[in-house]
Amino acid sequence: MDLILNWLQSGLSAIGPFLILLGLLIFVHELGHFLVAKWCGVRVEVFSLGFGKKILKFSRGETTYCISIVPLGGYVKMYGDDPTAEIPENEKSRAFLCKPVIQRIAIVLAGPLMNFLFAIPLFMAVGLKGELVPGPRLGDVERESSAFQAGFRSGDKILSMNEETISYWSQIAKKIETSVDREIQFKVARFNSGETVSLKASPTLVPNDNILTLDTLVPRIPGLDPSGRSSMVGVSSPQSPAALAGLKTFDIITSINGVKVNAFWELEPTLQAHKNSEKLELVVHPYTAKANAESRTVVLNDFHTLSNSADESKSLLDVLGLEESDLYLLQVKENSPAARAGLRDGDKIIGLDKSLVEKWDQVLAKVKAFKAEDKVIHFSIAREGKTIDVDIAPEMTEVMNRHQKEENRFTVGIIPAILESPGELTLFRVSSPAEAVSYGFEKTIDWTKAISVSFLRILTAQVSHKNIGGVITIGRVASQTFEMGISAFLRMMAIISINLFLINLLPVPILDGGHLVFFVIEALRGAPLSMRKMEIAQQVGLILLISLMVLSLFNDITSFVKSP
Questions:
Q1: Of these residues, 30, 266, 323, 424, which one is catalytic?
Q2: Whole-angstrom Cα distance, residue 252 to residue 397?
Q3: pTM for this one?
Q4: To the nearest 10°, the Cα dihedral for 287, 289, 292, 294?
Q5: What is the DSSP string of 179-243?
């Protein structure tokens, strides 16, 4: 019952943004067909938003404008678009199929093209309104990475590259992409101290993790990234100062003595900055799927005594009993090997096959390398101050890898408490109308390339078909971005508009792309295809389209049911 109520609640809240988003995109698409048809002298009989029964309509001139009951599309009904209908000689100048083939191509192409062009002003509006984008501050810099070896540290703020001032992370990424194997001079400011240092590093070609590009290798400086682990913490012992003060595993610390923190790497330097404070006030937010969960304040009195009497070799996080949460189990899946072995949510993995574990990557590597002849993996677990040893036999499972492709590998059914932080965000805004036009074109071209690549990867099975979403996904995304603000909503509208542009150009009969194929063939051979061939193609196209709609609806429902 809760699932049904949640579904209804989320569905109702999504209807408004969904109708605005889809209604505008359908209107723009049909407007393209309508305007070019009128320009070519074709009589337009109906301009409809939606399909099925007309719920609102009026006539102006020779056209009836209406809103129909099913809001999942629209159509422009043109006189003479039925190849089986008889057209009087004196009406042929107004009939669609009697027009020269180049005009019919223009009329059909105008719909998708309008969706492409509509994305440009949407991105321009985003640029003028402004949006939060990743800034030039580094997130986690792993000790083993090339960036760490070059001298970069977590929290460094990149001020310039080759003496060019840096304001946004996109500038850093672009500079690195164009400087493979060439040394770049960095000027960075250290976190907290503000000390400015000069560093050098050279990008190298590494395997590309971005599935929205075709490049297999891309220039990178491994370890240089704005994102990192969030400030979610694990509490190492029930007797630790943090636990006694009321901190719990999976709490997310959002401020320390009034100083906001977002990432785990910020905790230690912020604590050090307040080591002489009488007390420590931590504002924490519990990790939960509930939107209305409230933050609370945890107070540690006599903090200066605690911090100054501690072993200097220890970090203040160690002194308080706080640590990264990646080895704590956020969830043990029902009926999984881990659940049957007795593992629980909140357990901490401390050892595998009698070897100590320090990072989640070690757990992942151990389970992925498991072979059937190994029988079991020996897990050592910390729970409420006690150590528990269990043997778990991993099972072969179908999972989605980081390239969004399904693969079969051994798993035990555990989800670590890893929560990513996007890093420090900064406001990006274009400064002039000319810059806005340039920004609109650039983003539209970039997203058209990226979406085209994603289509290609799905069609060639390089990406799972489970990533295809339908109307429910569009509704959920519309609702979520609407809540985030107008810039996020407009950006998402532009991206979906580009999706509609490309989908409608697919050479599938019934879609605009299918009609274009018919007309191009007619232009090349000097005569249209036979009615029989077009009917067969239409039927095949209809089956393909219905299959795609069923698949997307199935994926939508599956995704909704699995979501927390």
A1: 30
A2: 31
A3: 0.80
A4: -10
A5: -TTS-EEEEEE-TTT--EEEEEE--EEEE---TTS--SEEEE-TT--S-EEBSBEEE--TTSHHH
Considering Cα of 157, then 221, then 421, then 344, what sign does the dihedral take? Answer: negative
Enumerate long-range contacts of 298-302, CB under 8 Å, 24 or more apart: 298/245, 298/246, 298/247, 299/245, 300/241, 300/242, 300/245, 302/278
3-class secondary structure, 563: coil
Three-class SS string for 433-490? HHHHHHHHHHHHHHHHHHHHHHHHHHHCCCCCHHHCCCHHHHHHHHHHHHHHCHHHHH
> What's the rounded Cα separation, in Å, for the pair 512 and 505?
6
Q: Using the predicted structure, report yes or no on whether residue 373 has a pLDDT greater than 80.
A: yes
Amino acid, single-letter form, for residue 534: M
Give the bridge partners for 396, in sequence order: 410
DSSP string, 19-48: HHHHHHHHHHHHHHHHHHHHHTTPPEEEEE
Q: What pLDDT, in 10s, does the model give residues 258-310?
A: 999 999 999 999 999 998 899 999 999 988 766 667 889 999 988 888 888 87
Identity of residue 193: S
Q: Which of 436, 366, 340, 377 is nearest to 120 (CA)?
A: 436
Count CB-CB contacts under 10 A for residue 183: 10
Q: Is the confidence at residue 541, as pLDDT, over 70? A: yes
Alpha-helix residue ranges (DSSP H) falling in 312-432: 316-320, 337-340, 360-368
Whether 30 is a known active-site residue: answer yes
